[in-house]
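Database export, one record per block. Field names are fixed; values are copied verbatim from the stored entry.
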Amino acid sequence: MSNILRSLLHRLGAALIVMIGISMLIFAIARVMPGDPARIALGPNATAEQVAALRLERHLDAPLPVQYWEFVKSVAKGDLGTSLYTNRPVTTDIAQFLPATLELVFVSGILMVLIGLPIGILSAHYRGRFPDHVGRLISLLGVCTPAFVWGVILQLVLGYFWGWFPIEGQLSQSVAAAPAVTGFILVDMAIAGNGAGFLDALHHLILPALALAMSGLGQTARLTRSNMNEVYERPYVEMARAYGFPGRRIATRYAFRPALIPTLTILGLEFAAMLGNAFLVEKVFGWPGLSRYGVEVILRKDLDAIVGTVLVIAAAFLIVNIIVDILVNIINPRIRLAAGRA
């Protein structure tokens, strides 16, 4: 068995244990939150008998271990329960809202890489000079400013005053939505062969994706700069300079790759964290995603929907981290060989 396959199986086993722990934790937390979910769902005009019937139907009067066992049995059948907020199966709600969030996070991740890495490389290459100062300022602003504030700033400057981008929504009113095949609006537009619709959807996606990416972008640039500066002090880089290699070649071939490994780890964590942090950006831009849905069900103490949403986000977090671990294993031979010896 190869080292990478062994590492993958080890991480999948650990992820399963973490998912069980998270399910128990969020299940307990959701039920100790103040408020009666049956009363909240039925409203103040519901009779005591109606509330009692709903509590009986949802096993809310049973001991917590019994409730959790009923939940586990339902999950084993692929059933996450029914939302009291939308009165639909939670799996249906997740299938509807998750693609919009994944699309937003995926484009944010691309922006984080395409903008953050070059800023870090340029800052390290021009250390102490004007490009470095500009790069550090952008990184600092990205890290210390919350994503929803970036959302409002981008809406005002690029949307309202300059009119370059739409302020909210996924499509213009004049553009018809493509038939839902995958739920990802860009993919569905591409499948339908609607080029104008694809560009319109991408146009609507840029501002929220950029707002969500700003924090990770700053972290990526700062970490890349720091790691590359450390690598620039290594003897083999000094030797490359002594041989007269061009600065661009030294930066991209000898300094960037060793510096990429810790940056890649941070990229994975930032990418996964954006799933949970997207709710304010989705709220600001009117984006119909899972994070905004998660906040709505928490406010209504919709127990099944809370647990289902958290489990899906946790699963996405774990999957992204497993992918990052495998990529680091492939890129860094020292980790791969150490795993093999272990």
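Remark 1: The two ends are 13 Å apart (CA to CA).
Remark 2: The first helix runs from residue 3 to 32.
End of record.
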